[in-house]
Amino acid sequence: MSDVLVEEGINLLYNSKIQDFNNWRMKNLTVKFDINGKSFSGRDLSQAYLNGVSCIGTDFSHCNLSNVNFVQAILNKANFEGANLTDALLMYAEMAECNLVNSDVTRTNFMFANLQKSNLIGSKFSKTILVEANMKDVKISNVDKKEAYLKYAKIEGTLWEGNR
């Protein structure tokens, strides 16, 4: 039964029926929702409740992910290239080795997120929250660190190291 339920949730996301998806999530909180390796490239998933979801290797490239709740999601090796993550919540998210090239992370909250070895080259930072984030060995360039709130962030191995 849970496979049918998961497929129903995935179909709602694929069709960008976000309000219906969020209602489905609220009714099926005990269902393990896993979208590992799926492709949502170019879709509008803004305001989706994807907290706690397993999205390992999922393709979110060029998606509208503004105001998405990814709190405690597992996003390792996910592709966010060119995605709009404005105002997204990614607190406590596992994001090791993610591709965030040319993404918009304006006002995005990465508090306590693990971004280790992710690629943020060309990303748009403005009022981005990285409190306690693990940014070890993150690739980053063309980003003014004054645009991010880095309190207690681990930035070893980044261009920002030594420029606190």
Keywords:
single chain; 164 residues; little secondary structure; Pectate Lyase C-like; two-stranded parallel sheet
Low-confidence segments: none
On the 0 to 100 scale, the average pLDDT is 93
Percentage of residues in strands: under 5%
Question: Whole-number radius of gyration?
Answer: 15 Å
**Overall shape:** elongated
* Helix proportion range: 10-25%
Instruction: Provide a count of the helices.
Output: 2
The CATH class? Mainly Beta
Report on the biggest sheet: 2 strands, parallel
- Give the name of the CATH architecture: 3 Solenoid
The separation of the N and C termini measures 52 Å
- Strand segment tally: 2
- Under CATH, the homologous superfamily reads E3 ubiquitin-protein ligase SopA
Neighbour order of strands in the largest sheet:
1-2
Structural class: little secondary structure
Under CATH, the topology can be stated as Pectate Lyase C-like
Query: What's the order of the H and E elements?
Result: HHEE
Number of domains: 1
Give the SSE layout.
Elements: H1 2-14, H2 18-27, E1 128-129, E2 148-149
Parallel strand pairs: 1-2
Tell me what the structure shows.
14% of the residues lie in helices and 2% in strands. With 164 residues, the chain is low in regular secondary structure. Helix 1 (2-14) packs antiparallel against helix 2 (18-27).
